[in-house]
Amino acid sequence: MASSKKTVLIPIAHGTEPLEAVAMITVLRRGGADVTVASVETQVGVDACHGIKMVADTLLSDITDSVFDLIVLPGGLPGGETLKNCKPLENMVKKQDSDGRLNAAICCAPALALGTWGLLEGKKATGYPVFMEKLAATCATAVESRVQIDGRIVTSRGPGTTIEFSITLIEQLYGKEKVDELLSILLVRPNPGEEFTFTELNQTNWSFEDTPQILVPITEESEEIEAIALVDILRRAKANVVIAAIGDSLEVVGSRQAKLVADVLLDEVAEKSFDLIVLPGGLNGAPRFASCEKLVNMLKKQAEANKPYGGICASPAYVFEPNGLLKVHKSKTRTRIVVSSH
User: Fold this and answer.
1) Which residues does the annotation mark as catalytic?
2) Domains and CATH numbers, the chain
3) Residue limits of the DJ-1/PfpI domain (predicted)?
4) With contact defined as beta carbons under 8 Å apart, do 268 and 295 qualify?
């Protein structure tokens, strides 16, 4: 396939599934695609699912005459319904199909949007489990594949399959060689559908009397897919997660230019106590964490109080190690609790 930069449209709405949207944005941009995130609302800022706020690059209404190599729809409710009811988007997707260009959708969007618009008739497609009957009702052959390709349409199941879905889209746009390059960078599990395992050293009891209070700091060039995955999953588990921005602006631009909005500035919660502090990575974002004295002090207090803290990607190396936060505590009666990941 040609290696020239491909253009991709990702529309978002209030109630869009943020993990799906952000994962698609970051993976496709890592793969070299020119991704436009467009709000179908009347403003670029959207309130996605799980209390996560995102900011689009533009309004869909401003780019309806644009042509893309791929249009890909995230899921989420009521976001999926809003996409379905957006007539300009429907027209763009239908023209995309009639012109022989790629369309893709995940979660509820295959059934609610592509299926309702008549684009799945006679095709194999997959989607979120509770939407499989609705998918079949659109005259599609509903299959339980994690990712399904039929002609110029690609569909997938939900948040847990988004990385595979996005990588499949990269293969459709750029070919297998680019996929192999991305897999090594993203550290994707070789068999994503299998149960995962983890190693726990110096086992300790994780228990909280009340709803866990968790802090997830973000900064410019944080790895946005890691930040959103942490927040999305922890909030699904009913934890009270506070997203705190380092600096003087709630809006943060991640490492792949995805625009996120924090709940508070870190300065506003620097004196508060949390049950867990967990840092996303980012090769440029993690050093910013390390240079934030207030955050480092919060982590040191967390360690002294024997409360858990965690980091992923570059954060353990840039933040924990230089500040002695990976060392075993001198007191034998206390266990340092650290969670880290690649």
Assistant:
1) 107
2) 7-186 (3.40.50.880), 213-341 (3.40.50.880)
3) 6-172, 213-330
4) no
